[in-house]
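F.,

This is the one I mentioned.
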């Protein structure tokens, strides 16, 4: 289970200008030095409302802030001055399929694992490269399943189906 980068009670604030945003100040310890202006992509919850793929944005003083849209404020029934519980995780902690997942799935199918271990490094790499050449998680999972099935039948990557 990922560890939250933020798990605290924060007060909703509003920029004092026409059309000013309502936001939460997060602090600057979570700035992403590799990204423009230190922006950080996160997911989590504000009270019981799920947040996905939102950006913490930089302020002039170096702190980060999270804009809280009117839609969210209406759902959680909160406005400027109210306190909310904010729990955030970095997007990097989302579990994407990886080579270890593929090897774990092979372990569930002993015949596939034995055949995979008999392949030379180039043949093993062909399977790994094909699985992960797509960046879409669902496609990677589908390719892992197809690969396990092929390996269980004793087929190398280049073998005809």
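My design for it:
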């Amino acid at each position: 289970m990922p560890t939250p980068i933020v798990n605290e009670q924060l007060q909703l604030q509003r920029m004092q200008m026409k059309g000013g945003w309502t936001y939460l100040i997060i602090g600057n310890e979570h700035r992403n030095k590799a990204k423009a202006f230190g922006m950080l992509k996160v997911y989590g919850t504000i009270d019981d409302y799920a947040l996905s793929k939102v950006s913490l944005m930089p302020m002039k003083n170096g702190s980060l802030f999270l804009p809280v849209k009117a839609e969210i404020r209406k759902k959680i029934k909160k406005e400027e001055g109210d306190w909310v519980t904010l729990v955030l995780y970095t997007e990097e902690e989302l579990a994407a399929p990886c080579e270890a997942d593929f090897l774990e799935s092979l372990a569930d199918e002993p015949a596939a694992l034995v055949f995979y271990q008999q392949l030379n490094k180039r043949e093993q790499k062909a399977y790994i490269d094909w699985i992960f050449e797509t960046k879409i998680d669902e496609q990677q999972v589908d390719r892992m399943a197809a690969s396990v099935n092929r390996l269980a039948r004793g087929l190398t990557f280049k073998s005809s189906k």
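The first helix runs from residue 70 to 76.

Talk soon.
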